[in-house]
Amino acid sequence: MLGRLQWFSLSLGELVSSLSDGSICIKANAQSCGECIQVSEICGWCTDETFLSEGESKSARCDDVSYLKKKNCNNIENPRGRTDVIQNKSVTIRNKDGNIKLKPEEITQIQPQKLKVTLRSGEPQTLDLKFKRAEDYPIDLYYLMDLSFSMKDDLENVKNLGTHLMREMREITSDFRIGFGSFVEKTVMPYISTTPARLINPCSNNENCTSPFSYKNVLKLTSNGEKFNDLVSKQQISGNLDSPEGGFDAIMQVAVCEEQIGWRNVTRLLVFSTDAGFHFAGDGKLGGIVLPNDGKCHLENDVYSMSHYYDYPSIAHLVQKLSDHNIQTIFAVTEEFQPVYQELKNLIPKSAVGTLSSNSSNVIKLIIDAYNSLSSEVILENSKLPEGVSISYKAFCKNGVQGTEDNGRKCTNISIGDEVSFKISIESQKCPSGGKPEVITVKPLGFNEEVSIELNFICDCECAKKGEPNSPKCHGGNGIFECGACKCNEGRIGRECECSKDEVRSDDLDANCRKPNSTDICSNNGECLCGTCECKKRENPAEVYSGKYCECDNFNCDRSGNLLCGGHGRCECRKCICDANYTGNACECSLDESTCLAKNGQLCNGRGKCECGICKCEDPKFQGPTCEVCPTCPGVCTEHKDCVQCRAFGDGEKKEMCQKECSYFNLIKVKERKDLPQPTDQSFPLTHCKEKDANDCWFYYTYAITKNSTKEVFVVEKLDCPSGPDIIPIVAGVVAGIVLIGLALLLIWKLLMIIHDRREFAKFEKEKMNAKWDTGENPIYKSAVTTVVNPKYEGK
């Protein structure tokens, strides 16, 4: 019992850090090793036969691995997952100008190719994938064209497409094939006119058109560009009634009819050329067609024969088939329908949209640009995952660019010869029903290569394979003894399968679960199973009930400082077992006296006793950790002043009683103040003092208690008395001060007078300037000039 509980003396930090995870395993109440390892990757199962203590349930074997080790478990079942590479062929380094021409199946662009991953619940397994675009990789391109009447001028430009496109594509790959197909609409009302004449020639205005059709495979994939031109030049325009076309029917047949189209396991491109919208699932009801598209090939003599029977495919159905057959789609549409097909592109991975001129004259440039855009991007996708399995991606692209979550699946701007890598994490949350291996695939969209991953699940422990059926250890063969515990047969329960389920609540068995003189079953801390107490589990895995009647626990002991057993012991059956040097009900009392030592080396400064590592001062006026503080006591210097004064200088208040009261210290005289001991010179506390006597003379001394408790006083033998005042300097200073003050006053008076005179003069000058004098004529003045006017003068 004692050995079982030693592991509980954990530090508080260890306890808190493990509460959240450790309790997961305990809460699961796992009854076998297989159940335990499914709970979490941190859970382990102890297989030691003697691991459980009295009152512990079988599920106590399942716990955090670190806890099991602290509980002294020697054999822990803790299987781990792993990743094994089965096929790891290096990516192909191929040169277009090289002499060796490889077959498509001999070219490798993704590595590794096959893996085996063993998964344990909650433990992710990581694997690395590498992708490298191969140079001169073969290409199959199928040109699917709308041959409704509005595409008449486009057909003329496409007739020479074969040789021109072949020449351009030779710059990209030496292995290029091209095919051609056309579509119009379902051959039922209201999509086309079903009158006999219109079924022969759906066009008006005397135009010569071919009969309407849904989809026609004109030319399967070929490397002969001249043959493409020859067959396409023989094609005729047809017609229909409504604007949207039946292009989705045609795309579905091109995708699923691999043999008729001639697809190889190479880069597959589908160019979809139209100047109109499209019908999709549900639109067939207008023509009375309600059966969903079955996604199968229905080509008879290269013509789609079931357009009148099956509805148009849905966008999701189309996406699935294009992905399954590794087909990359290029929508070559007129500017008017660009927004519609841009939205469609967002729903179809590895697709592109190009703007087609009104007469398709730019179709070759459009195809080249779209191919370069598609091939510069790699997007990983995986097949359907088993229930409970999740997968995540992290991309490591060019120029150190990294992507996570949705961007972790793809890398862009990849040139030929560039190498990128992906880190894939696979995790299982539970063991699938049956636990059989599952195979998933991961592949780059638009490429025929894929990585095959076989998933194996750890659903049981290795030790379970060595189980002993009908073991005598399980109450006479009532169970399988595996992994250190009994796995009971149907209808049997108990730690050793000793009880039948029908006997679980028997009163006779319950009596075995009561303490003497008690009515409580298992002390109300457990459940009576088969006459044996199985104690309750606590939320905190470090807290347990134990004992035959679950009467003990390890968490209800006395506390000190809010810590169980003061943090200095372990709790066993509600009683503290203290560590060395500790005692007390809560291990709160330390037997170590080092905390009571004062600076002078004495215990409690000789003023108290050390109890539980704390000084208990005998004199109540002293306090502090070592009884060194006395708030009501005079200072050391004041306390010893009179005795030092009487012994050193024969003076002071204790002069008459000096011999009797002041002989408790050794007096040592020094000549000067600098000769007094300094604190750095001593290994014990030292106090410097400066005191004044009745004559206002200062004397200096030090007081110290040595390690052997001897009191020592060092005193400067000469008093420091102040000298009398010097009269002459004082008188001279006073006279000089009076004279200086007089001179200063005269200077101030003189300055004020000068300022006043200047103001008065300025005022006089101003009044003088502003004065005005009156002018007049002399009354007795007569002019000497007389003026005479000639009366005959007429001014001529």
From TrEMBL:
Residues 1-18 form the signal peptide. One of its GO terms (biological process) is integrin-mediated signaling pathway. Residues 637-726 form the Integrin beta subunit tail domain. Residues 750-796 form the Integrin beta subunit cytoplasmic domain. The chain crosses the membrane at residues 727-749. Residues 32-461 form the Integrin beta subunit VWA domain. GO terms for molecular function: C-X3-C chemokine binding; collagen binding involved in cell-matrix adhesion; fibronectin binding; integrin binding; laminin binding; metal ion binding; protein kinase binding. Disulfide bonds join C33-C43, C36-C73, C46-C62, C203-C209, C257-C297, C431-C689, C459-C463, C474-C486, C483-C522, C488-C497, C499-C513, C528-C533, C530-C565, C535-C550, C552-C557, C571-C576, C573-C604, C578-C587, C589-C596, C610-C615, C612-C658, C617-C627, C630-C633, C637-C646, C643-C721, C662-C697. It is a single-pass type I membrane protein. It is found in: Cell membrane. Keywords: Calcium, Cell adhesion, Cell membrane, Disulfide bond, EGF-like domain, Glycoprotein, Integrin, Magnesium, Membrane, Metal-binding, Repeat, Signal, Transmembrane, Transmembrane helix. One of its GO terms (cellular component) is lamellipodium. It holds the Pfam family PSI_integrin. InterPro entries: EGF_extracell (IPR013111), EGF_integrin_1 (IPR040622), EGF_integrin_2 (IPR057073), Integrin_beta_N (IPR033760), Integrin_bsu (IPR015812), Integrin_bsu_cyt_dom (IPR014836), Integrin_bsu_tail (IPR012896), Integrin_bsu_tail_dom_sf (IPR036349). Belongs to the integrin beta chain family. This is Integrin beta. It comes from Oreochromis niloticus. The gene is ITGB1.
